[in-house]
Write a structure and sequence with these properties.
The chain has 424 residues and is mainly alpha-helical. It is 71% helix and 3% strand. The termini are far apart.
Length: 424
């Protein structure tokens, strides 16, 4: 770390903006503490990097897959946070179990299940599944979002030197300053571009405390209902983890299945999630948003993400500073997200090209077609009907367990690749 320069800290700050919105949104929706979620994300990321030897440039933030289960357990009552913590820890233990199994089975066998014909469309699905949120955010004020988008494009295409490395940061700063200027001059209200007449609401800053209170933390309680509701969701996020690590490796140009190994990335994710549950945060997962930043900047140094993790820890401890980032206009984040999420999908297309797949073969067309359609069209599918077949539809797990389209698409892709003959 001794050769770190000011440039590294600025680039780490850029990653902070990419992960911040999603990381605090999950606790906001579920009733958990956003400051603890930031603290848990930072600690979890450092744990992940420690276990993986600091080789994989990822950031671990709050997982969206668990929102439904956590909301059901919380029931709008903060007194239920300890039982949620127990369920989150159990989900982390499922990850650890998977890592042990893969260690003994061998990464090579797992890798054979995920050739480019499967992983490339999965990467595309990951990027395009994020795109509706980018458009929704941008639609809150298209002029401002487009302006941010234009700034990022210009910086990426026409700038040189250091500026070319921070297009996201420059786009965010430009959008924020313009929004602030419109608020000050009154033009925001005149054009009716923002709900409530202003882009930036400083209320969150005034309401936030300076330092997180020790009373915000609680000890976990292990409740069977919470465990059966949250732990099985790790089966879904396990497949998403494989997709995210594949995507990250495709962006960076390294095989993380081989080094440090899929068993280590799963172990890191699992322990990070268990640590998060221990202090009261939501489950962690590898973030595609930060992979998008890697693709834009082409700066793949894992130390940047560890710097971001330290920033997240500080923001979690000093809540007042974390609240400042909450004032970023939604439309500004929409303009940024359009670039980040699109870059992820583009990496999937690049992987298809690099693999030189022959689409004159029906098997390749079928596998890619099914992965794309299921992954993009299915959304979150309830599996209650499966439990109903066995007369177990009233179980808590049956009521709340859902399979993401990404999970189902990945499973279908793996199965099709195994059963379809190569010569078709």
């Amino acid at each position: 770390m001794k050769d770190l320069t000011a440039k590294h800290f600025v680039l780490g700050f850029q990653h902070l903006f990419a992960m911040f919105g999603a990381t605090v949104l999950v606790p906001t929706l579920t009733g958990l503490n956003p400051s603890i979620a930031l603290l848990a994300a930072g600690l979890g990321t450092l744990v992940f990097h420690l276990i993986t030897g600091g080789k994989v440039p990822v950031f671990l933030g709050s997982s969206f897959a668990f929102i439904g289960g956590i909301m059901a357990l919380m029931d709008n009552n903060v007194q239920n946070i300890p039982i949620v913590q127990g369920g989150v820890i159990a989900a982390g233990l499922v990850y650890i179990l998977f890592s042990v199994i893969i260690y003994f089975v061998g990464t090579d066998r797992i890798k054979k299940l995920f050739p480019p014909v499967v992983t490339a469309p999965v990467i595309i699905v990951i990027g395009l599944n994020l795109s509706p949120s980018a458009i929704a955010n941008a639609s809150t004020c298209w002029p401002l979002a487009i302006l941010v988008l234009v700034v990022i494009i210009c910086v990426m295409c026409f700038s040189k030197g250091f500026f070319k490395l921070v297009p996201i940061l420059i786009g965010l700063a430009s959008g924020y300053l313009i929004a602030l200027l419109l608020d000050i001059t009154g033009l925001t209200a005149l054009w009716n571009l923002a709900e409530g007449g202003k882009f930036i609401d400083f209320k969150a800053i005034s309401e936030a405390g300076w330092i997180i209170s020790p009373s915000s933390f609680s000890l976990p309680k292990f409740d069977l209902t919470a465990i059966t509701m949250l732990a099985p969701i790790a089966l879904v996020t396990f497949m998403e983890h494989i997709g995210d690590i594949t995507t990250n490796g495709a962006v960076v140009g390294k095989d993380f299945y081989k080094d440090p190994g899929l068993h280590r990335t799963l172990l890191g994710d699992g322990i990070a999630t268990a640590v998060s549950g221990l202090i009261g945060g939501p489950p962690n997962t590898t973030y595609g948003e930060n992979t998008g930043v890697l693709a834009v900047t082409k700066m793949y140094d894992p130390r940047l993400l560890r710097i971001t993790a330290c920033y997240a820890i500080l923001l979690g401890i000093f809540a007042k500073f974390g609240a400042i980032l909450q004032t970023i206009p939604v439309a500004v984040m929409g303009g940024v997200s359009m670039v980040l999420f699109g870059m992820i999908a583009s990496v999937g297309l690049r992987s298809l090209c690099d693999a030189k797949l022959d689409f004159s073969h029906s098997r390749n067309l079928l596998i890619v077609a099914l992965v794309l359609v299921i992954g993009l069209g299915l959304g979150d599918a309830s599996v209650k009907w499966i439990f109903d077949l066995f007369g177990a539809g009233n179980l808590a797990i049956a009521q709340n367990l859902k399979l993401s389209g990404l999970f189902v698409a990945t499973v279908v892709g793996v199965i099709m690749n195994q059963i379809l003959p190569q010569e078709v």
